[in-house]
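Many introductory courses stop at the sequence. We go one step further.
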Amino acid sequence: MEHRSELSEADADPRVAEVARACRAAEAETNGLFSAYWLGCRARSPHAPSVVADSLTRADVWATAAVVAGVDDRSWVSKAGTQTGMLVADDGRVARWLGSTVIETVAA
């Protein structure tokens, strides 16, 4: 018989609750593109994004959102509040943005 011991958030170190609150806030802010809960979804095959924001935490949240959204869905960019970013797909397509403005790139 297998026994699992699970610690509730209320019984854990207070920092766990702080992280959980931050993750819930990030999930709400990104309309679910960022989630700390594994739901079995797969990223839409972009390479690791580069995102510049006012803090490392915000950059990480929105980089995660970029990967989940993929290169074709840039609807979230205007809400992100990031300074700039870039995402490269496996096929070489590039999604770039400055602030809330999407920058269209074309092959030379």
